[in-house]
Structures are given as structure tokens and as C-alpha cells.
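Q: Could you write out the predicted structure for this multi-component system? I'm mainly interested in how the pieces pack against one another.
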Amino acid sequence: MKIQFFQKLLIWTITSFFAFSAWAQSEEDISILLEAESFQVKGGWLVDPQFVEQMGSPYLIAHGMGKPVPDAYTSFKVPEKGEYNVWVRTMNWVPGSWESPGSFNLQINKNTIPVDITSTDSKWTWLNAGKVKLKKGSQTLSLKDLTGFDGRCDAIYFTTSAKTPPNDLDKLTSWRKEVLQLPETPEQTEEFDLVITGGGIAGCAAAISAAEQGLLVALIHDRPVLGGNASSEIRVHTLGIYGHYQRILKMIDTEHYPNGSPEAKKEDEKRLANIQKYANIKLYLNYRAYDAHAENGEVQWVDASQTSTGERMRFKAPLFLDSTGDGWIGFWSGADFMYGRESVEEYGEEWEKHGELWSPEDADGFVMGSSVLWRSEKLDKAMNFPKVPWAMEVASDHSAANGEWQWEFSRNDLHQVDDAEEIRDHMLRAIYGSFYNEKQKAGNDSLALQWVSYLVGKRESRRLVGDHIYNFNDVRDNVQFPDSVVVEEREVDVHFQQNLLDPSKPDFLSKALFYKVGRYYVPYRSLYSKNINNLFMAGRCFSCTHIGLGGPRVMRTTGQMGASVGYAASICKKYNVSPRDVYQKHLEEYMQIVLSSNEHAEDSK
Amino acid sequence: MKGWLVSGILFYCIFFNSFKEPEDCTYVFDLPSRDEAFLNQVYFCKPDSGDYYYYSVITTSVCNDENCKLAILKVIWDLAGNYTKFETLPGKPLTKNDHIPFTITDYDKLHSTLQNATSILGDKTKDELLEKDSLKYSEKIDGFTGATSKEIKEAVVDGALYSTYTLWHLVNGDVRKEIRKYTQSTYDEQMEAQLLSSANPRTVLFGLKNLDESSYPQKFTQLVQILQRSNPLVNFYITKRLTPEIFQNPENRAAIQNVWESLDKNTQSILSKLLEKPTGGG
């Protein structure tokens, strides 16, 4: 590990020439960039790679639910002794007149350096933490959390230069590449029959069905556990029916325990064990895709990096599945996509009873929100919970001891992908503030937070456009398609924020509108991209409208999508054809495989 | 039972013929009862003073699986077809279990249920009112004996499950669409003003949907009044249609600033972008 770390140690020496500088005509600057997520020991800090596309990098977060977490630390080498400027890339996640909830210090060789984040706004920024004299050779650096309330650190930069590192995201990205001396393309390339990005229920189901048909599959997932919203990191139980894929989906779904239950952990174990039975599924946990490239309407490769080490890998295949939820592979490769609520007229999705709440006259961005689930429990001793003045603007006088699916946040001016960190942070304020209020009630001395997710459980984000855009009419009319590969009977379930009807309600709670309709079917043509010829999609980024998503967005249903895509990929491979050709030329054979899924031999394990 | 029902129909048809509508009202269409045994006439009224409205003296049969009775009630709707109130007719109280007349509390409950256009009753078929696994039909007309789900119990008048259900569907059903159609066919400025000043957000929304966006700058004062008193969903409808150009007028900016504190968070967050005003934390 150590050797690997030092290979990764990010030391950069630059030579700058200041031709007209009064104080240094020619000076060699020494700079060292340490990525927090690459620290040798993370202590109680967690690696958070959820917002890389918005802020530039995975980072460490001190998610201690109000108790300072143990230190993260690392060692690093200084090539030359000298006085170094210390820069810390961080953010003040709730700026205000209070003591910042995310405070932490640096400790360099046992000397504490305060990081004063109070003056920053809520944007990620390089903060100057003063100067430090360093001797040549090995040094130690620690992150010392002071609050347990989600302090965050992306990187620490030591430099003898007087220049401020760039804050602009594009400039920062180029700067990072330069500093880290990263080659344009990843060092390693692997080739597969099918590359699946996103190891939620849809991605896992696709991996299994494709592997059972003999395909060599890469399953790339940016978390340490599989399951996405169903995993023990987010803890939403799986809903919906099995359709044609009971045998496969039972390997990866969950029991119907309450959302937020720790029982999700045993389901993680079951899921991982079942995936690992397949020798031809190559699992890349903790790898987050950061780019995809298409030529002539076909994805050529997906690039991903290890969320802690930064190690990069290129994944090539004739076929790709986007099960990222946010439609990233499609987005990067130029696939057509949709976002937001369509106008009621666009697809004729009116439900008079709920009018604007259901489908608006004019399109907008007020989609279903993201949830952050949480729970508390009573212990056998009194437990302190500090004041959280920075949370009260959101929580107000609301009190609660746990948070189920209704703990959800959406606002028309917030984008569920681009503003996901703000949405997560808003939910954290709602949770901590509501829990604080609950703690003030008589009899709650021993109540303690047991678990608060730090991952946003998204319901709706980008949806990639396929040959068929699944919409309310398909549901309402129970349309059966020749390529019906997914079947569901759960109500269409579209959420809205409670405060839309009653402004006295907190803005972080939602309600559901249920439309009961009987059986409905999703066609295979909603599961491959219209304009990227070798790209499938499964999960919430399948081809549908906002209302069309309302029914099939639950996870057994998205699992059905994944399983059916895996089979389609096997037809693509067998005849060397595109996903569209499966529908146009090989539908009978494909549907035969789909309909007999429960009888397939699991001979490729 | 059927013979009894036919006699009832005959009796109430005679009754209807003797019922005189107010002189400022016009017959507009028929509202059939759910079993189509009765055709109830709906009138549009334009009193000299006060709001325009629609009304019907509705007669409907209320049946469980075994028995039927009749309910009669004068119902009033606003210009958007949203239920406003009801009146009983002299000597014709509504009744519940075993023909016990409604109490004042029962009438209040019925009124609040009829006001709720999205009541759970709208999602249920008659067969779904009683939970299938605990069918315990009361022998008494319109009664139920604990076999309904909690949410249905909460939505109906105690002891008058089928009366509440039947009346809700009649009052909140197709009649709304028919009324809206008629309102739109005779739309005028007074109607617009009445709709936009309604206390019912659904009615305001109907008024807004009939208002051309191009008139928003001229009607900005009225729109600000709506923003101040209506619900966030209505405000969202309005703010989606406001453009930054409207706020180039300093008077309009000032009008928003004056009511800022009374606006809900959603509305503030959208307006702040139009006004380039920071929203504060969160």
C-alpha cells in the first residue's frame, strides 16, 4: 500500500519565469498537491465522489452526525526545505453568523494550523491557511474534524509560489491535470463485450443476464457497495413486481423493511455474493466514470477513475449500458436527453383532478426530488446533541426522530444533477434541525442519531431519449407492445413538495399522487438510445417523460429493465447488430429469451 | 325496492316542476345522478349584486348493496365549477343510519369533504369503500360497521358513507368540466375579476389559465395581490410566466419588495432570480 501510495504521491515541481518581476527575475517554485481522498488513513472521514462533475474531485467529508470524527492522515515528502504557502480546497456549507458547522484544522508534523472557513461563501474554493516552514523529507499531515457536522476537504496544496491556485472549475481541471502530470488517456485499457456503468439494481440485473448469456461484462460502480438507492448507504427498499425476471431479481433486491432500515446491509452482502458468482462479471467497485466518447454515433470508450487513488481506467466494448441514473454516459457521448416536467400538451398527460400539480401547462424543472434517509434510536444512557443554529432556518419548528421517503427536496430553480450537493446539504440541515427539536422534548434524553445518509437518493434526473418515449398514455391505456419487456402493476407514483399546497409545511417534505391503473408495460424501444447506436439505458434514465417515470421508477421495475437489456446485448453480440436491430430484426428470438428468463440455466457462473 | 324507487322518482319530478328558479338565473345543462335515475337542472345566476354562481337542486339515490334512499340538496358552484356550498330544502334533511337526520357536525363534515376536490373518495370505486378482507355490511341503510379503511372513515360523515360518496362524485365530477365550458363561452371582464379574486386557489388558477400572458404587465398589481394571498402552486404558475422585462419597471420591483416577507419560499426563490435578489442561506 505504501509503495503504491508513494507512486501516487502528487509532487509537482514547476519552474516559473517572471521576466519582469521586481523580486524574482528567475525563481524555481516547488509545489505539492495532496488529494484528501488519497490520504493513507481516512480515519472517520468518508470519501464523497457524488459531486465530481460540479466541483471537480472526490473529497473527504467528516460525517459524524454531530460528533467529531477521528483524524484522517497521510505522510508526504518535501523535496526541498523552505517556507510554503498552504492552500486548502474546501467550502463552508452553511455560511452565516454562526460558528461554521464544517470547521476543521490541519495538523502538520503535530503543529496545528486552523482553517478559517467562516469567511468563505458556499462555493468550493482554495483557502489560504498561511505559511509553514517545512524541512526536506517525510512529513505528516492530519485533518482534524472539530464538529462532526460534515466539514469537507478536497485537497491541500503546498507551494513556494505566491500564486493562488485556480478556482474556476475548467481552469482547475486543466491545472490539476498539469500538476498531477496526467496523460491525456488513462494508463490502462480493458476490453469487454458490454460495459455497464452504474451498479444500482438495473446495472446489477443487466450484468447477471448478460453474463448468463456468456458475455464478458464490466460493472463499474462508484461506491464500495452495490445496489444504488437500495444499498445500505441509501436504504430504499425495492418495490414493484418481478415481471419475467424473478430468478435474477431475487438475487439483488431487498425485503420490504422500512426505508432507512439497517437490514439493508444483509441485502448488500447477498447482492455482492450473487454478482461475484459470475466469473465473467468484472466488478469495478469505487470506480467513477468521468468521461465517455462517441464517434460516428457510437460510444467508443468510458473512462473511470478510482475514487480514492485516482487511478484511471479506459473501458472499451462494442456495447454500453448507461445505468448511472443521471444519464452520464449518454450525456458525455452526445445522446439526446430530457430533463424536467413536460407541458401537459406535449404528450397529452393531463389528470384533471390534480391539474398543474400533476402536469403543468408550461414545461418546467420542478421534478421529483432527492431523499436523504435517516434514523435515530434510544440508547441506555443520556446522549448530548449540540445546538445547530445553522440548521434552523430550514428545519424551523419541525421535529422528527427519523426520515422516510417523504424527506425529499426539489425546487424549480434547483437541478437534481447540477445542484445535488446543495440539495444534499439542505436535507442535512433539515435532518439535524428537526432532530435537535425532537431532542428538546421530554423523555428524549437518550435519543441519538443512529444513521444519517450522506448520499442523495435521487428519484429523477436526466432521461435519455430512445426510439419510444414512455409516457402517461402508455400507462393509462395499458398499452401492450410487441416488445413489452417490462411489466408493472404498482400505481403511478409522482411526488410533489408539500409546501406547494400548504406554505406552512417544511420545504423538505413531499407527498405522493397515486394513479391506479392495473398492469402496464414498458417496451424495449425505451431502453436504447435514439441517436447513439450502441448505447442502452436502464434505471431512472430510461426513455420516458416525467409522468412516464412515475410508475417504473421503483427498483424491481428498473431491475426488469436491466435484465432485459442484458439479454438484448447477447442478441447484439450473437448477430453483431445494434440494439435497434434487436427490435427490428430479431424480436422473436429476443422475446423468447426474455419470456423464458426464469428457466435459463445459470451455466456461466 | 325498485317500485319504491320509481315512486320516488315520480314524486321528485313533480317536486322539481314546482321548484322556481330565481329570475336572474338561466338553465344551462342537466346533471344526471350517478345511476341516471334523475336529471338535475343546473342554472347559471347573475345576481345584480354579489358573485355569479351556478346551482342545482340535486336529487340522487343513495344505495348500498341492499337498499336505496333519496337525498336532495341544493348545491352551489363558482364560475370555475368548484363546489362552494350546499343548502338543505325545508323538510328534507339528509339522513344517515336508520334515517337519523344529520347533525350540524355532520353537515359541516359533508361541507368540508365536498370542498376537497382531491378527496380519496375520488380514487375509489363504490366496491372499494369497504375493505374486502373484513366485509361487514350494515343492515342499516348507508351504515358501515368498522369495515372501511381509516382514511375513508376520515373522509366521510360518520354513518353516511354512501351519501357522502355519492354526493362527492356528483358535486366534484363531470359537472366541473361542463360549468367551465359554459363560463368560457360567456366569458367577460367581471368573470375574470371574480375568478382572480377568489379565495379558492383552484378557481384562481382557472382564471389565470384564461388570462393571456401578454396582459401580465397591465395586470401586474392584481397578480401581486394573488401572489400575496394564494398558495405556492398558483404562485408558481404566475412566476413561471413573469419575465425579467416586467421588473425593469421600478414600480413593479417595488410592488414585489413590499410583499416580499409574505411570500412563500418557492415564490421567493424564483422571483429572486428575476429580480437578481439573493435568497439568503439554504
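A: Regarding packing and overall arrangement: The mean pLDDT of chain A is 93.
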